[in-house]
Write a sequence for this structure.
């Protein structure tokens, strides 16, 4: 049983690199992000995608819908397992205001740190990995696009590579990028990382 997973980060939004959006509602793609999503969809035509799933947040839904429209696929399915990490007390905070011991721990010890009022990286990883493993069992031979968030994709990729969560920031996941993995009952293998297709 083997499925090909395309980990796709949502396209750009107005808070990108300015504010920690987390699960803040009502954060749509920016004008540039809408163009990125349309270009990404066009680039994915002919890739054999059989279905698209996404985090329930607006920016991921918009990105996923652009891909579905370009590829002639049914509307994406929203999946809670793909939602952004619960950023707790930091939700909506400007990056310039985030400092102190908890913030330092989050950035240096992702394997054990907990966001104040939010999740640990391990909890977030368990959500996405559990979902990927179910897909591998139930979607043999399919190519499935999962539109999610940078740290959620990092968590999935780290699992595939056997990389410690403490080393999660050693690779980038850019907006509108694609990372590919093959997942089966035998394990998993990363095929590409952080491809910029548009």
């Amino acid at each position: 049983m083997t499925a090909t997973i395309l980990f796709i980060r949502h396209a750009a939004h107005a808070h990108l690199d300015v504010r920690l959006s987390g699960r803040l509602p009502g954060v749509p793609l920016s004008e540039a992000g809408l163009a990125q999503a349309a270009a990404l969809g066009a680039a994915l035509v002919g890739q054999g995608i059989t279905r698209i799933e996404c985090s329930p947040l607006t920016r991921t839904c918009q990105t996923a819908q652009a891909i579905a429209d370009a590829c002639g696929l049914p509307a994406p399915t929203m999946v809670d397992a793909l939602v952004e990490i619960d950023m707790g007390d930091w939700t909506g905070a400007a990056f310039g205001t985030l400092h102190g011991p908890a913030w330092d721990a989050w950035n240096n010890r992702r394997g054990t740190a907990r966001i104040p009022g939010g999740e640990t990286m391990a909890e977030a990883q368990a959500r996405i990995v559990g979902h990927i493993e179910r897909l591998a069992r139930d979607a043999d031979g399919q190519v499935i696009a999962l539109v999610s968030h940078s740290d959620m994709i990092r968590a999935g990729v780290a699992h595939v590579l056997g990389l410690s969560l403490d080393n999660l920031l050693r690779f980038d996941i850019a907006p509108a990028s694609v990372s590919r993995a093959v997942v089966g009952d035998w394990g998993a293998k990363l095929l590409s990382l952080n491809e910029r297709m548009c």
Summary: The first helix runs from residue 31 to 44. Residues 57 and 180 are 22 Å apart (CA to CA).
